[in-house]
From TrEMBL:
Broad class of the protein's primary localization: membrane
Signal peptide: 1-18
Gene3D superfamilies assigned: Receptor L-domain
Name listed for the protein in its UniProt record: 3-prime end of extracellular mutant protein
SUPFAM superfamilies assigned to the protein according to its UniProt record, in alphabetical order: L domain-like (SSF52058)
GO biological process: fungal-type cell wall organization
Region of interest called Disordered, as start-end residue ranges on this chain: 362-406
Keyword Signal included in the entry's annotation: yes
Ranges of biased composition (kind: Low complexity): 364-398
Length: 423
């Protein structure tokens, strides 16, 4: 968390010393705290101990408040915490008041507060990570000013009805899951550099991310609708699963860096990816009971992993497809889809992987070989042109997308630049 602390401090100095001179004023921000307000960590389990924290306008160190001995937790007067603030496992706490708190440089973590129903974070604008977890009675986050700077937001298993007050647009993690009363997520998010995940909120959750231009991992589960008309690049993987959407539409998306998975969406009838030209990893489409066509990829040219499509299709084409680095499996149980086009794709050598199988209206065809397909889904025609044709072994491995994590350093570099851009 050291890194995010620095960032948060940098961000605050941007505010304090004028965002117009966004130079490195980090050293000017070294906080000074009154005696008793600076420590490595401090745990409060009763009102007197909480009051001793509340006596500090500036706290340097990690604060944990926990236990069943606390009804209302009052942190009035605390303005800045250079460290983490954890409030957790306080199962009799009904209210938390921190109306003067502007900054938590590390994690602000509220967890396992079963009857917490009132939260006042009226002036909070800056956190390293905001994490709410298991706050079932909390309907409002009490973020009156609103959070504008954070590197991660995780909202999980709360009673919140909206994400009002969360106004961070460029960050690393945005994860909203298992909030049964959130029916709309309409956010100004612009870029999410690590994971953007929205899953298992209200069954009717409509997700509107019309400012989003780029994402790394995008994971959508149990959503009702999704719109991201400005999203042009997904650098890692895209997963849409177990959702009620009737149309999956990514009007502006040009590339998916790794795999693209669309499965178990029982109501989806149409896919629309008019600009998508490349999928870096596997393309997986399956268990979408109402999907009769996969003709929504008019420009898709290269697939860097394997293809696995199953369902009951009347038609489906990849008119622009010229390279599949992995194997190709298409199985259409009912419907009119014929394999002709895909047989052609295979015999013209555009499928590089070791396995080709298609079953459709006119019958089925399949073959496998140990040609130089690759096991990690990236490009295959490699160095030695000595076509290694060892006898047809049964080594038809599925070429799943590589799941290489972005290196920490590149995340840090990316994020460092966001730290500045945030203003
Ligand atoms: C950075 O900003 C501080 C405070 O505004 C100013 O005193 C300092 O001269 C600036 N440094 C540079 C290199 O611009
Ligand atoms: C709260 O937690 C304490 C200690 O874990 C436990 O003894 C008590 O029964 C819990 N109370 C409620 C209302 O859950
Ligand atoms: C995706 O990759 C592009 C090109 O490397 C980069 O400019 C962009 O910031 C990345 N976006 C995210 C959200 O990681
Ligand atoms: C894309 O972003 C622009 C500028 O923020 C906005 O006006 C427009 O409505 C967005 N487009 C879509 C299709 O959402
Ligand atoms: C293709 O996906 C289906 C599920 O949609 C799965 O059962 C099957 O094993 C997959 N086939 C391959 C070759 O990966
Ligand atoms: C493809 O199949 C769908 C669903 O059966 C149908 O609505 C559509 O008209 C078909 N398109 C073509 C080009 O045949
Ligand atoms: C797929 O293409 C390979 C290489 O051209 C060929 O050997 C194989 O018979 C083809 N499979 C089918 C089912 O057409
Ligand atoms: C697997 O990926 C690595 C790194 O991208 C690459 O160096 C290697 O050649 C690939 N293996 C094959 C068999 O393509
Ligand atoms: C006053 C100043 O240096 N402003 C700069 C802050 O950073 C942005 C983005 O890097 C520059 O465009 C500004 O010129």
């Amino acid at each position: 968390m050291q890194f995010s602390k620095l960032l948060a401090i940098a961000a605050v100095t941007g505010v304090t010393f004028g965002a117009s001179s966004n130079n490195s004023t980090l050293t000017a921000a070294t906080p000074t705290a009154a005696s008793g307000c600076s420590f490595s960590s401090f745990t409060a389990t009763n009102n007197a101990q909480v009051a001793s924290v509340a006596a500090c306008a500036t706290v340097v160190g990690d604060v944990t408040i926990q236990g069943a001995g606390l009804d209302t937790i009052n942190l009035n007067g605390v303005k800045q915490i250079f460290g983490d603030l954890n409030i957790k496992n306080a199962n009799l706490t009904t209210a938390i008041n921190a109306p003067d708190l502007q900054l938590v440089s590390g994690d602000l973590n509220l967890e396992e507060l079963q009857i917490l129903s009132s939260l006042n974070l009226a002036q909070l604008t800056t956190v390293g990570t905001l994490q709410f977890n298991a706050l079932p009675a909390l309907e409002r986050a009490g973020l009156t000013s609103g959070i504008t700077t954070a590197d991660s937001i995780v909202i999980s298993d709360t009673g919140l009805t909206s994400l009002e007050g969360i106004n961070v647009f460029k960050l690393k993690v945005f994860n909203v899951n298992n909030n049964k009363d959130i029916e709309t997520i309409d956010s100004g998010l612009i870029a999410v550099t690590d994971t953007l995940s929205i899953s298992y909120n209200s069954d009717n959750v409509d997700v509107i991310l019309n400012q989003l231009t780029s994402a790394n991992n995008l994971d959508l589960q149990r959503i009702n609708s999704f719109s991201a008309g400005n999203l042009s690049a997904i650098n890692d993987s895209l997963v849409i699963t177990s959702s009620n959407v009737d149309k999956i539409e990514f009007k502006n998306l040009e590339s998916v860096g790794k795999s693209l998975t669309i499965d178990q969406n029982g109501e989806v009838e149409e896919l629309d990816f008019p600009k998508l030209t490349s999928v870096g990893g596997a393309l997986q489409i399956g268990d979408n009971d109402q999907l009769k066509s996969f003709s929504g990829f008019p420009k898709l040219k290269t697939i860097g992993g394997s293809v696995n499509i199953s369902g009951s299709f009347d038609n489906g084409t990849f008119p622009a497809l010229s390279s599949v680095a992995g194997g190709f499996t298409l199985s259409s149980e009912d419907g009119d889809l014929s394999c002709k086009e895909f047989d052609k794709l295979n015999s013209s050598g555009d499928i590089k992987g070791d396995k080709y199988a298609c079953s459709g209206a006119g019958g089925s065809s399949s073959s496998s070989s140990s040609k130089k397909g690759n096991s990690n889904g990236s490009s295959s025609d490699s160095s030695t042109s000595s076509g290694s044709r060892s006898s047809a072994s049964s080594s038809s491995r599925s070429n799943d997308a590589p799941s290489v994590q972005s290196s920490l350093s590149s995340i840090m570099v990316l994020f460092a630049s966001f730290g500045i851009v945030l203003y």
